[in-house]
Amino acid sequence: MTEQWTPKPPVDLPLRPDPQGAPPPVDNVIDLFAAKERLHAQNAGDQIPTPPTGPTEPASFFAVREKNPLPLLTPPSEPRRLCVRVRLNDSAPPIWRSLSLPSDIRLDRLHEVIQVAIGWEDTHLHQFTTAGDPLGYETEGILTPFALAEGDVGVMESDLRLDQFLAEPGDLLHYTYDFGDGWDHTLTLDLVEPDSPDAAVRCLDGARNGPPEDVGGMFSYDHLLTVAAHSGHPDREQWLPTIRALNLRGFVDEIDLGAINRGLARLDLADAGLDWLDLGPAGANHWDGPDAAGLDHAETTEPWFAAAMVQSGIPREALRAMFTHVGVQAQRFFAGYVGAAMVPQAELPHDAVETATMVIRRYLMHLGDGITLTAAGFLPPARVRTLMKELDPDRSWLRPANRESAVYHLGDLREAVVALGLARKLRGVLVPTKLGRSARESPEKMWQAIAARLPLERTPVGREIAFLVLMVVGAGEATGFVKMRADLDKFSSILGWEIGGGGRYGNDSAYAEAMKTVDVLSWAGTGRLLPGRGQSDELSLPGAVLLARAALRD
């Protein structure tokens, strides 16, 4: 016998309120708050409250409830030193940092510290919440400017100190960054010490790099690392563009404690950088766009702000023109690098000056009173061989070194010497200028001549990228080729350039726009025409750093 389907009788559903008639009964499920009250009473074994009789208005689920004030601690009479562990929730192995902080640090400043310490880029919203109410349901909020503009109730983070939340070891504070990816952090007070005269914020220890921005959260990031580490992973093809853009091939998940602390130091140096640039408080001289300057979008093929690019040889004016149009946050970001590059130098070490000018001085010495060029306009082969023996003692150039056209480094050197005004071509003869003759005998004169003429680029994009190079090198952050390219990719994008070449921000080829200035700084770092085999730190050596700083000063 085949079983036949029999429809079930209709279920009596709660009636919808009749807009023309009486309101629904109070015990209707539409009244969620009344239902919740009855449920609590039933679970507790109490008598279920009897609904009042007569017509009543249903309670609103979205009714604004008055929140409790923030549970703030009384700060100590004298600031103390707090050792705080910041852990990124759900990370395994944990991503964490141990920070030494003054107890009176304001929370808006603490936000900047966490961003640098973990490696975030501050491109999303954030929020602090208390340990007793991590979701912010019961107490008033710790407000950011955005939250205040949205009408949230609470106290501005800039008016709150860390020691109003953390006082005893074990006390907690929560911090969320990027509400889309949902990066939740837990701050735990590990140790309280007497305050020290040095009020600097320091990162004492930590583990694992912070995730990149916009990867979808911790689960997505863990999956991305797994795919990057296994070439045969089934998702490899799908994720390969992201892996390349984030430089995750061969990724070693170890933090650079020195780089983190240099970044924290730049937070303190930003004000000095803004003062040097004469920008005042960040945003005081903010340029709101082309209309504010009377520029027409249709009149420029370069980014609209290129029309305001200062082409003079005064670095302060050029940097001010570059940074005036960007936002407040970006101004402070760049000003930190400028402040780091403007650290006073008591006296230039003679060894660094001699090394920094070695390549160019030796080239000019070989010119003598002048070298007759070949019919094609190149140095004679004999001169090329002699120069390469002296300027490339380690023989890093593996191919034949007997023609200037084949050794492009020599061609780059000649172009730089001419651009610096130290030599010129006169009727088929390459001759030193008057400045070149006097400076080649004195490292100090050569140093001044080079510093006064950098950067060498003359196109709008090349000049701005070259100033960024001087800024990054002068700040001591050009610690490797890969990092330098990544920094210029990001920084040029912030300034508004669309250069191309891939990279995380689409400007991976920005580095190539400033190669003339990069070459001069590389020679200054090593004292050689070519870096040693496998060497990529030439821009972080003293000669390069000090020359970049000298070039940035008026």
Verbal overview:
The chain is 37% helix and 11% strand. The chain is α+β, with helices and mostly antiparallel strands and 554 residues long. Helix 16 crosses helix 17. The termini are far apart. Among the domains are: 47 residues, no CATH class; 135 residues, Structural Genomics Hypothetical 15.5 Kd Protein In mrcA-pckA Intergenic Region, Chain A, CATH 3.10.290.30; 79 residues, no CATH class; 91 residues, Arc Repressor Mutant, subunit A. Strand 4, helix 3 and strand 5 form a beta-alpha-beta unit. It has 17 helices and 11 strands. About 10% of the residues have low confidence. The longest helix has 21 residues. The relative contact order is 0.07. It is elongated, with a radius of gyration of 32 Å. The strands form 3 sheets. The chain has a 6-stranded antiparallel sheet, covered by helices on one side.
